[in-house]
Structure formats: structure tokens, C-alpha cells
Amino acid sequence: MEFNAKKDIGYERRYEKLKELCRKEGAKSDMSYDEMVDFLLESYAKLEKESNIDYLTGLGNKKKFENDLAIELEKYGRAKKQLGRYAFAVVILDLNGFKEVNDSYGHSYGDLMIKSAAQAIKDSIRKIDNAYRIGGDEFAVILELSTQNTAAIVVDRIKKNVEEYTKNVLGNGKNCTMAAGISSTEDICKLPDSSMHGQNTAIQLFKIADENMYKDKRLMHKELGIEER
Q: ∠86-78-48 over CA atoms, to 5°?
């Protein structure tokens, strides 16, 4: 049975507030109380989803990455308590050559490079995996049910696809490359006990992958004869 808010003095103010909120969200004016509640719940769910998405690429954003990493660590912790096994890997990626594109060709081309790299990453991972843009030219991937070795295979695929996808952006054959670093549940076992608690573990996993990414970047620069600043 539908609740008639207008007949209840105690809910009259809440009813009018609901009408005002719905009006601001663009709802039709003849909605019932229950319809207004459902409309607002759907609107707020949509806003919550949008707050987790990077506007340029459609990938998850840094907030989404941090939340999903926490969820993966919870799965790992539950499996460990039950004497089971659960593995996942974190990949941190940085687009090489992005600053030069921005400086030489403008931000519109820089945005196209970012979008092309994001698409390359999405096309390189499975449906159960998740990709994120966590900074200007920095990305992250969480690979479920993955070890260090399987993650390395995915990284190779990402790198090849990024080079391929970005080579047509500028129209002159110049492309961007991707530096990558990996951490995994195998690294958790190597952490001191003081680091193996919730957020600290997430920070350590990110730090390991990030440091490995910079090692990869330095190696790539060395191979190209680029001096480190």
C-alpha cells in the first residue's frame, strides 16, 4: 500500500523536500511519493558511479582504484584465514613521451594520446580485470587471479598495444611507449608484519609497483640514450 505523505502532518515537510530535490534532478512533477524515492535512489546511484569514472577515458579513477584494491586485499585476507589461496597483481603504468606531445602539438593531441593509451590497456586485459587512470599520464590495472608471471605477460601485451594504438594519433608515425611496474600478492609475504594491515598493505603494494615502474622507465631511457634529469 502506497504511503500518502500529504495526509500525515509529520511527513509533510519531508514530502515537499522530496518534490524539490526531484525537481532539481529534472523529474516530472506528478510523481507519487514512492516514485520520487525510487527516482532519487537511481539518480544518486548514477552520481556515485560517475564519481568513480575518469571523464576523459571512461576508465576508473584514483578513488575507484583505491576502493577496488581494498576489496582485493579483503579477498586475499579471507582466503588466507580459511587456509585458501587468492592471488592478484597490481600494475602501475606511465606513458612515455606524453609531455612532448602536449608541448609540441597541444593539449587536444595530448588528450587523444591518453584516450588511445587507455583503449590499448582496456583491449589488453580480461573482463574480470580493471583499469584506471590515476593521474595525468599514469594508469593502473588490477589483475584478478594473477601471479607475477601472468601479470608480466599482460604487461608485454599492454606495451605492444600502446605503441600500436598511439602511432596514428599525430599523423606522422610518432607514438608513445609505456613504462610498467608490477606488484602482487607474492610481495605481501615479503612485507614486515607491521606493514601487513589494511591500508598499509595497499600503500606498500602501490609503492612496490610504482618503484618497479620507474626502474622500467630508467631502463627504457638508457636504451634510448636519454639522460636522467
A: 90
